[in-house]
Amino acid sequence: VTRALRVLAGLQGGAGDYPAAKLTARDAALAAASAHDDRGAADIALFLLQVVTNQTNELDEAEALVSGTQAAVARAGAPPGLQVELDSALGALRRNQGRFPEARALLEGAVARADRELPADADITTTLVRLAGVLSRQGEDIAARRHAERAIAWQERTLGDHPYLAMSLRNLGGNLLRSGDNAEALAVLTRALTMMEKVLGAD
Question: Does the pTM of the predicted model rise above 0.85?
Answer without folding.
Answer: yes
